Amino acid sequence: MLRVFVIGITFLTVFLAEIGDKSQLITISLASKYDGTKVFAGIFSGIAIITILGLMVGTLIFRYIPLIYVKMLASIIFISFGAYTLYFEEEMNIDITKRDGGVIWSSFLFATLAELGDKTQFAVIALTARYASPLSVLTGALIGMAAIIGISVALGCKLGEIVENRKMDLLVGSLFILLGIVFLVETLL
């Protein structure tokens, strides 16, 4: 019975924590432009790996690489992707959908960087410490993430149908630059 409780409480914690979080915004943005199934696969894989690492090594992962450097790198990558989307994507005529695994890999990379040191990762670590049931916490976290990612992909795909490509590029590019700036401000404060 405790196992079901831990899965449920973890699911609820992760699901609610991710509503409006940068991971959800990233998922919606990517799904509005690219194949939703591939975005789901990449985002979920990235978040699953970060969650598993968080459970396995907890905060020790940051013993050798200070969190500030990881967050600064994430900020630079997000700002760069936003600038690329706004200014160069159409001119350079590069389409990540034509590369093998391009959408999945890009989604994976963004999710992984966004979740490193995120409140959800720390919540999963705290729940594992509290209940001493890593498998139940992992199960609840992954189900919660899958649910919120699925909803976000559906929203993004619908948004992509409604808004024309160039306007979507402006929205997505601006959002990534904004997220990069927010990451940087959070990191420096």
How would you characterize this protein structure?
The chain is mostly helical and 189 residues long. The chain has one domain (2-188). It has helices at residues 2-18, 22-33, 36-57, 67-92, 102-115, 119-131, 134-162, 165-188. α3 runs parallel beside α5 and α4 packs antiparallel against α8. It is globular. The chain starts with a helix and ends with a helix. The model has no long low-confidence stretch (mean pLDDT 80).
Keywords:
189 residues, mainly alpha
Total domain modules: 1
Terminal-residue CA separation: 42 Å
Give a short account of the largest sheet: none
**C-alpha Rg (nearest Å):** 17 Å
Summarize the structure.
By secondary structure, the protein is an all-alpha fold. It has helices at residues 2-18, 22-33, 36-57, 67-92, 102-115, 119-131, 134-162, 165-188. Helix 2 packs across helix 7 and helix 3 crosses helix 6 (119-131).
Explain the layout of strands and helices.
Blueprint: H1 2-18, H2 22-33, H3 36-57, H4 67-92, H5 102-115, H6 119-131, H7 134-162, H8 165-188
